[in-house]
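Q: Entry one of two.
A:
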Amino acid sequence: MRVRIDQQQCTSSGLCEVIAADVFVIRDDGLAHLTSEDDHGPDAAYQVLPDHEDVVREAADQCPGECIFIED
């Protein structure tokens, strides 16, 4: 499973970080970012570890901006 964020749709609610802090972080710009972004760039999809898949799906489901996209 891979995940990416469309930051243009991000509403800065922070729910993703609350639900899955190992994968998502709200940075100084107020937008959600992937914690792996420093290694892969802002538009890259992040390979989700198997033990984080459930919380990433929950974060995507709860996201008010619907900006979290999952690729199976």
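Q: Entry two of two.
A:
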Amino acid sequence: MFRHKGKTRTLQHNIKIASLLSFIAGLVNVAGFFAVKRLTTNVTGHFAYFMDEVYKLQFWSGMVYFLYIFSFFIGSFVSNFLLEIVARKDEQYLYIVPASIECLLLIVIGAWGQPLVNSYPDVLACCLLFGMGLQNSLVTTISNSIVRTTHLTGLVTDLGIDLSQLFFYRLKEQKARLHASIRLRFIIIVFFFLGGIAGGILYARFKLMAILFAGLVLMLGLIYDSVKFRIIVMRRKLKNMRHP
């Protein structure tokens, strides 16, 4: 689900990666908000608060919201920068570096971030926003902008558009593409909500360690993808040996 890019990607690849990453984003969104009382998976609200502080001439207060926005932007920038570097060497490992950074970041924050919740909440918020910027850029790039997982505004809009088009599309190929798009968007929204529910339940019991669970889920996804890829390569080698 991570390794395929461009024309080699299928709907099933996108569904798998969308399910995994939207669940993680939903979990981080809820657990992060409960922990630091900030939005930690998107920057739309932060931009509004930033402009409000600027309007009131509270530039120092506004700078905090600017840092939230900038952290998400830097995460996106770093992710694509690393993707471009790795793509020039070996596209098989395209996703590993940014995904591993996000995984490590979530595990570190979940395991050791609780003491910082009261003293440095803004630092934690920036770190989580950086991680979500990494994730959003990664999945957007490898899915050709089909999948986005860290917020629902655009997804709900696109789902509404797709559902309205059901009344007008008549050709079989058009309807097939539309049904695939609706299915993908619906899955992203459902898994984001499931991640949010999991985040709320885990935070109530384990506090910020709920973020650790998100990191472990991502790690399992990376391991699954790596093992599956090795099995596919091994099968191809065996097939070539039998039929030279």
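A: Comment on entry two: The chain has a mean pLDDT of 87. DSSP finds nine helices and no strands in the chain.
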